[in-house]
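User: Can you help me understand a structure? I only have the sequence.
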Amino acid sequence: MKKILIVEDDPMLSEIYQKKFENSGRYEVIKATTGTETMEKIKKEKPDLVLLDLVLPEMDGFEIIREARKDESLDKVMIVPFSNLAQEDNQAKAQEMGANDFIAKSEYTPHQLVEKVDEIMKRLDEDGYDYSKTPEGEETKKENSRKSDQKKKAKPERRSGKGSILMIEDESVFSEVFGVKLENKGFEVTTVESGEAGISEVGVNQYDLVITDIMMPDRKGSEIVNEIRHTKKNKKTPILILADETDSKEELEKAKSLGAGRVMDKNKITPEGMAEECNKAIS
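Assistant: Let's start by predicting it. Here is the structure, written out as C-alpha cells:
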C-alpha cells in the first residue's frame, strides 16, 4: 500500500478525497492543511506522493516544491500540484521547480482523481506496484455494504436517538462523507440520488429532517419542497437546502417560500457544521 499526503485547506474536500483514496484500498492517506504542516509531514512521513494544493496558508505550493527539492532525502517523494491555478505558466513553473506532474482540480471528480493518481504513480513508480488491483476482501466488503444499504431501505420507519434524516443529493461522495458524520453523531441517515426517489421516500416514511440539493438532475429543489409539504407524513418536517454560489437565487427564494428552512453552502459547510445544523433543525 502506498502512502499519499493530501494537502488541502478545505476540510470538506479533504475528507472527500481521503475517503475516495482509502476506499480504493491502494493508499494510506495522511493530510495537511497549511504549508508549514505540509513540509513537516513530508520530512517526517516521506510519503510516496504529495497531492499539493498551490494556494495555502503560511507557505504556498511553489515554496513547498522548492524546499522539498533542496533535500536529497526526499528525492523519491513524488510531488503533484493539484490546483485551480492550472494556467500553462503555473504548470511550467511547478514542473521546472521539480514537480512530477500537474492536475487541474476543476477537471476531475474525486473518483477520476484516484484514477489519475494511479496513472501517474504507475508511470513514475519504479517498484512495479500493481495499481489496478483490488485488495483481497475489498469486493466482499463492497457487497456487504450494498446489502446493508438494501436493508436500510427496506425498513418502514426510521427512528433513532437523535432523529432520522433523509438526504436527497446526487453527488454520492458528498452524501457518503456527510452521511457518515451524521451517523457518527447519532442520526439515522437515508440517502437517495434523485428528486423522484426523495419524493417517493417522504410519501411512504416519516423523517425528522429532510436535506435536499436545490438543483437535482430530475427535479428543482422548489418542486421537491412543494411535494414534501403536500405529503401526509412529512408536511411539517424541517427541510434544509444545499446550494452553492452558482445556483439561482430565485429558485432558492421560491423553495423558502414553499416551506424550506436554512440554506447551507455546499462549498463551505463542513461535516461537523452540518451535524450542528441538523441538531438545531430537529430540536
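Now, to help you interpret it: The first helix runs from residue 11 to 23. The chain has a mean pLDDT of 85. Let me know which part you'd like to focus on.
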